[in-house]
Specification:
It is found in: Plastid, Chloroplast. The chain is an alpha/beta fold and 526 residues long. The chain has 18 helices and 19 strands. Helix 10 runs parallel beside helix 18. The protein binds ligand LCLJCK34 and 4-methyl-5-hydroxyethylthiazole phosphate.
């Protein structure tokens, strides 16, 4: 069999596009090769472990994961009810399909339930060498169900371990591989790691999560020369099902991205700890081995997801805050936002140019609560981090802020992104990059934003005509001229965004009401 120790000579992860590649439209562009893992493992119907966990881990770590299924288990949080092995020839078919087509970097194995299946795996790896092999020697489920019997031990010892780059047994698996030696102390884990290393894998990680009497969870890593003890706090939770699969898959994913082995192991351990800690109190299933959340998202309040897509009509009366003005009039931003909404504001943007991050975040959180309870969307000006931290409905960015396509990839598909545009080209780019609306101005001169070029009603009209996105006009707009703005009569001009017309006023509520009435009247007339 060809050597699988390829991570010693890691090829470049970048390559140049060729005419034969279908993923790009040009022949000169450089594209990044997608890191790819193949998991060869059993299916867990409860999806906490096995193939399902492996795919989730790789997705969470930004790595593509193909899957070859060795067995299908009927399994839930109470245990394994039944196991159906796939015929070795069919496992072989799957391996061939994947390995002959994909550029798999790393193979990770989980449940290998029969010597015949190990045999076909070894043959496939010899036919289609990969850069690294991560072996999680799964033998018994957390609930005590035997997933690979003792018949597997000799082929593991004699054939699989010698070609593995790393093996990740827990103490029970390590003991079984070593013929039943007792492993109950750290010293015995070290000794086991050494003995396992002599069987051929380049690295050994003996996981100590099951060791009795230790307040930390300690894993022992051995590279043939040096030992490393990797400590993490023990997390009290029933939701530990799939930790072994998760750790090994994460190691595979990190190796696929180009990490060295020790870094991959450390990141994987941190990943598991973070996910366990996040998920310690979630309740899925009625049994004693709950799954955990690889994406750290299940605890998010479902109410906080927007129930519908962005409604352009919300741009009708857009209230953009200004802390200096609110200070001048001696009111808090929260009171200002409340009054604007009561007066008819249909969307709110927090535009804070001076506040410290901590203060900004606290204010933003309070405003999110008010807006959400009133069914009004709240956006954050410029600060993607604040928008993420306070779970705002979106952000508004300018031409010199973070590019819209990057904002979109950070915020995901369901957040609102607005972008300032003064020209037709910018309007076109905003649409291409995934913005939801355009803010266009300054339509009139303004004292609120220094050195801002005025584009006039003609400039606004031009942007509207070029834009496939809804537009909101901004800059120097108030009760006296709002009607003239709406009168340009472009169907995608949805409203006006105002700062001083609301917030540099003694009474935000009455100004908002008046402006709202003006806008409604101009709408009726056109
Ligand atoms: C609705 C809306 N339109 C335009 C702007 C201006 O944003 P930007 O160009 O980022 O300038 P600053 O607001 O950061 O000074 C806006 N805030 N809102
Ligand atoms: C933020 C911004 N962007 C273009 S003009 C402007 C300021 C708008 O403030 P005002 O409504 O007080 O003129």
């Amino acid at each position: 069999m060809q050597s699988l120790g390829g991570i010693r000579s890691w090829p470049a992860t970048w390559r140049t596009t060729t005419a034969s590649m279908t993923t790009t439209t040009t022949t000169t562009e450089s594209v990044r090769k997608v890191a790819q893992v193949l998991t060869v493992a059993g299916s867990d119907s409860g999806a906490g472990a096995g193939i399902q966990a492996d795919i989730k881990v790789c997705a969470a770590r930004g790595v593509y994961c193909a899957s070859v299924i060795t067995a299908v288990t009927a399994q839930n949080t109470r245990g394994v009810q039944s196991v159906h092995l796939l015929p070795p020839h069919f496992v072989s078919e799957q391996l061939k399909s994947v390995l002959s087509d994909f550029e798999i970097d790393v193979v990770k194995t989980g449940m290998l339930p029969s010597p015949e299946i190990v045999q076909v795996l070894l043959q496939s790896l010899s036919d289609y060498p990969v850069r690294a092999l991560v072996v999680d020697p799964v033998m018994v489920s957390t609930s005590g169900h035997v997933l690979a019997g003792s018949s597997i031990l000799s082929i593991f010892r004699e054939r699989l371990l010698p070609v593995a780059d790393i093996i990740t047994p827990n103490v029970k698996e390590a003991s079984a591989l070593l013929g039943g030696v007792p492993i109950q102390t750290l010293a015995e884990m070290r000794s086991a790691a050494k003995s396992l290393h002599e069987m051929g894998p380049r690295f050994v990680l003996v996981k100590g999560g099951d060791l009795p009497d230790s307040s930390d969870s300690v894993d022992v890593y051995f590279d043939g020369n040096e030992f490393h003890e990797l400590h993490s706090p023990r997390i009290a939770t029933r939701n530990t099902h799939g930790t072994g699969c998760t750790l090994a898959s994460c190691i595979a994913a990190e190796l696929a991205k180009g990490s060295n082995m020790l870094s991959a192991v450390k990141v994987a351990k941190r990943f598991v700890d973070t996910a366990l800690n996040y998920s310690k109190d979630i309740v899925i299933g009625k049994g004693m081995q709950g799954p955990f959340d690889h994406f750290l998202g299940l605890k998010k309040d479902p109410q906080s997801y927007r129930q519908s897509t962005f409604n352009p009509d919300d741009l009708f009366l857009y209230a953009v805050t200004d802390s200096r003005m609110n200070k001048k009039w001696n009111r808090s931003i929260v009171d200002a936002v409340k009054a604007a909404i009561q007066g008819g504001a249909t969307i709110v943007q927090i535009r804070e140019k001076e506040a410290e991050t901590r203060e900004f975040l606290e204010e933003a959180k309070a405003c999110v609560d008010i807006c959400r309870s009133n069914g009004v969307c709240l956006l954050i000006n410029d600060r993607i981090d604040i928008a993420l931290a306070c779970d705002a409905d979106g952000v508004h960015v300018g031409q010199s802020d973070m590019p819209v396509d990057q904002v979109r990839s950070l915020l995901g598909p369901d957040k609102i992104i607005g972008v300032s545009c003064k020209t037709q080209e910018q309007a076109h780019q905003a649409w291409k990059d995934g913005a939801d609306y355009i803010g266009s101005g300054g339509v009139f001169p303004t004292n609120t934003k220094a050195n801002n070029r005025t584009i006039g009603l003609d400039g606004l009209k031009e942007v509207c005509k070029a834009s496939k996105l809804p537009v909101v006009a901004i800059g120097g707009i108030g009760i006296s001229n709002a009607e003239s703005v709406m009168r340009i009569d472009e169907p995608n001009l949805k409203g006006v965004a105002v700062v001083s017309a609301l917030f540099d006023q003694e009474c935000v509520l009455s100004q908002a009401k008046k402006l709202h009435k003006t806008l409604q009247e101009s709408k009726r007339e056109h």
